[in-house]
Amino acid sequence: MADRLARPRRLSVKRVISKSTRSVAGQVLIFQVALVVLLVACGVVALILQSERDSAAEARRRSTAVAQTFAHSPGVLAALRAPDPSRILQPLTEEARRSAGVDFIVVMDTNGIRYTHPLPDRIGKQFVGEIAPSLAGEVYVESVDGPLGREVQATVPIENAGDEVVGLVSAGMKVKNVESQLNQQLPIILGAGAGALALSTGVTALVGRRLRRQTHSLAPDEMTLMYEHHDTVLHSVREGVLIVSADGRLMLANDEARRLLELPPDAEGQLVSRLPGLDPETSALLASGREATDEVHLAGERLLAVNQRPTEHRGGTKGTVVTLRDSTELQAVTGRAEVARERLGLLYDAGLHIGTTLDVLRTADELARVPIPRFADFVTVDLADTVLHGDEPAPTATDMRRAAVYGIRDDHPLSEQGRLFDYVPSTPQARGFGSGHSQLVSDLPTATGWRLQDPERAQAIIDYGIHSLITAPIQARGVVLGVASFWRGRQHEPFNEEDLSLAEELVARAAISIDNARRYTREHALAVTLQQSLLPQAVPEQNALDIAYRYLPAQAGVGGDWFDVIPMPGSRVALAVGDVVGHGLHAAATMGRLRTAVHNFSALDLPPDELLSHLDDLVGKIDQNETAETAAGVVGATCLYGIYDPVTRRYVVARAGHLVPALVHPDGSVTFPDVPAGPPLGLGGMPFQTAELCLAEGTQLVLYTDGLIEDRRRDLDVGMELLRDALTGHPGRPPEETCQDVLDSLLPGRPKDDVALLVARTRELPPDQVADWDVPPDPAAVSGMRDAVSQRLDAWGLSEFGFAMELILSELITNAIRYGAGPIHVRLIRDRALICEVADGSSTSPHLRYAATTDEGGRGLFLVSQMAERWGTRYTPQGKVIWAEQALPEVMQQPDPGPADADTPLDGGPAGP
C-alpha cells in the first residue's frame, strides 16, 4: 500500500502534466476557473448597471435640488412681481446654472411662459414639459425632448407667503451629459473586473496546485480504490492499527484499536501522552517512536501484544505504524484483593466526581454516571419533588421525580428523566424510602412486589435482560431525600450482600452533596426572590427614552448590582445604576435600601450631585449602624445618576465611584464622556460634580456595572475597548438588540460577577408640543397669559382643560410676581400629561397651607393642589420652578415623539424652543 502511495511522486513532469486533466485536482481546477470567470463577468455587468442607475438618479436629484433651492432663494418672489422679470432673473439663473453644474434653469409664470433660458431666443416662449403637477404644489421630474436635446428636468412651484403658486422653476441636465459620466466610469469598472479575474484565476491555480500535491494527481477511480483499502483497514481487520506522527500525535485509529484501547471519539489529533485511560507504559512506547515487536502492555483489563515500526524508510511521512492484538486469556475469577481494589477505586472516583456543583440535578446525574459500567449497567435516581425546590420531603414515597437515569445503552425500558410518580408500598423503592434501609432483589424475574408499580414496564425490563436490583435510600442528617436504584443486566452477575454494602457507601457519600445542593437551592431561591422584589419589575411608561435592560446574576448567586428608571416632572427621566460589592442576602438587601433611597431623593427633584451627596450620607449612616455580627459595612457601593430632558435634549449626570457611561451617537460612533469622578458612597468628605451633555436625538446611553467589562483575565481598558467595539457601527440598532449583542460579545459564558446593563435611546419632544413665554413682573400680564394658554390648548385640541389650566397658571404666575423675583418664565408641555411650569429668580419655596375663613389670601396653592394631579417645586441655578400636571386621557396623550416642524407662535408669546 505504501508503494502505491509513493509511486506518484516518482512520476516524470511530462507524466504529471498528461494526467492533470483526468485527475481530481485537474477537474476541480477547470471547474473553479470557469466559475471565477462567470462570477467576474456577472460582477462587471452588475457594476455597469449600477453605475448607470446611479448616474441617472444623481441627475434627477441634482435637478430637483437646484430647482428647489432657486425657488426658495431670496428675491425670487420680488423679481416675479417686477415689471420685467427676465431682466432680473436671467443673469441670476445663468450664474446659478454654472455654479450648480446643471445645463439649464428656467423660470416661468403659471402659464408656462419662460422668463429665463440659456438660449435667450427661447425667453417668452412656452415651456416644454408638464406643469400641472407643479401648479398643484408638487415637485415633478420628467424626461423630455427640449431645446437643448433630450433632457432630464425637475419642475417645482414658487409659493408666496399664503402658499399660493405664483411661478415655476425648472432645472435639468442633458441626457448625453449624464451618459458621459457613465462612459468615464467604464474604463475603471472594466479594469477592476480584469484585475479581479486575473487575481481570482491566480488564486484558483494555486489552490488547484495544492490539491494536486495532496491527491498525488490520482484519478477518481484510483482515489476510490485507495479509500476502499483504507476503509478495509479501519473497519474490517480484527487487529488494531494506529498511525502516530513524528510529534507524537495520533493520526489514525481503526475500530479494533478504539475498542482495545477504549479511545474517545475525538482521540485522533491528540497527543498519545494525553489520551485518557491509556497505560503510562503503553503511552510512552507510542510516543517514543522506537521499534517494538510483540511487547506486552496492559490496556484496562486486557493484555495487548504491540508491534511498532517507522514509516519513513518506505517513502511515507515520518512517523510510526502500530499494530495491536488482544492476547488476554480467559480471566479466572479475581481474588478478594482485586475486588477490594476495584471497590476502593469506585469510591475514590465517587469522591472526585460527585458533588462538583451545588445543583441538585447535576449531583444526581453524577451519582448515576460514576458506577457505570464497573458496578451496574443502569442507575436511576429518584428524588422527592420538594427536594428539587430546596424543601424537605414528605415521609412517604409519593411525588417522586426521576432526577437522573444513565446506563450503558440509551434504548433501555426504564422510566425517562423528569417523570413524576408515586411508588406503591410493595416496591423496593417505597420500602427503602420509608425504612431508611437498602433493599436487595437478586432475581427480578421471580420477585412480585416491584411488578405492581407498572406491570407492563416490569415485563419490558425483564425482557430487556435486567435481572438484579439494589435500591439505596439517599438520606442525610436523618432525612430521606430519595432513592438510588442500581440495575444489572446480562453483562454482570446478580447483586449480592457485598454489593449491597458498596451501594450503601456509594449513596451515603452522594447524599451529603445532594443535601448541600438542596440547602443551597433553598437559600438561592430566597435570595433571588428578595432581589427580584427589589429590582424594577417593569420600565415605567414615558416618552423621553426607549429603554432596554438586562440583569445577570453571578456564578456565586445574587448580588448588589441594580438599576432604575424614574419618571421626573417636566417629561424628564432619571436613569440610575449602582453596585454594592458582595453577594448574597446582605448585598441584595443593601441594594434595595439604596434603590429606595434614590427613589425618595428623586421625588425631591434634586440635581444629580446633591442626590449623590444625600445618598453618600445615608450609606455612611448605614455603615455606622451595622454591627459586627450582621455585616462589615457597605464598602465599595457605587452609583451613577443622571437626568435626561427631552425638551432641551440635555443630560445632566454625576457619578460616585462608578464607571462612565457610553454614548452611541446617531452616526454609529461611540464615546465615553468626561464625567467627573466622585468617591464611592459612604466615604464622605468630597463633593460630587455634574457633567451636562447635549445629546442628539437617537443617541443611545449605555449604563453598566463593572461586571460587564472587568475580568481577572483582562484589564479594565481592554474591557472598555471591547464594549466600544460591540457598540460601534450600529446607529439604528434598537436598545433591545444592543443589550443582547453587548452581552453576547463581552460575556460568552455565565459571568463571575453581577452584571446590570441599561440601554436608553433618546428622543426629543417635538417643538410643537412645547410653548413658553417670558412674563413681565406686572399683575396685568396675567390676563394676557390666560389668553395665550387658551389659544395654545385650542391648537392642541385640549380646550376642555382650559379652565383648570388657566386657573393654575394664574395662581402660579401671581405668586411669582408677588413673592418671587424676575425674570419670570412660563412653559407649557404636552406629553403623557399636560404640564405647566412657572420659573422665577427666587429660591424661596412656597408652602401649602389652609387659610382661615377670615383670611383674604393664602388659598392659591390649595387651589392648585386641588385642580392638578401633581405639583411641586424644583430648584435651578437661576432660582426655582413650580410645576403642576394635569392627567390626560390616553387618546389625548402625546404619542412617541419624533422630528417635527418648528413651532408657530401664538398670540401672546414666541414660538417654543
Automatic annotation (TrEMBL):
Residues 892-913 are annotated as: Disordered. Residues 382-524 form the GAF domain. Residues 542-762 form the PPM-type phosphatase domain. Its main location: membrane. SMART domains: GAF (SM00065), PP2C_SIG (SM00331). It holds the Pfam family SpoIIE. Keywords: ATP-binding, Cell membrane, Hydrolase, Kinase, Membrane, Nucleotide-binding, Phosphoprotein, Transferase, Transmembrane, Transmembrane helix, Two-component regulatory system. The keyword Transmembrane helix applies. The chain crosses the membrane at residues 24-49. InterPro entries: Bact_Sigma-Reg, GAF, GAF-like_dom_sf, HATPase_C_sf, HATPase_dom, PAS-like_dom_sf, PPM-type-like_dom_sf, PPM-type_phosphatase-like_dom. It is found in: Cell membrane. It is a multi-pass membrane protein. It comes from the Bacteria. This is SpoIIE family protein phosphatase. It comes from Streptomyces massasporeus. The lineage of its organism: Bacteria, Bacillati, Actinomycetota, Actinomycetes, Kitasatosporales.
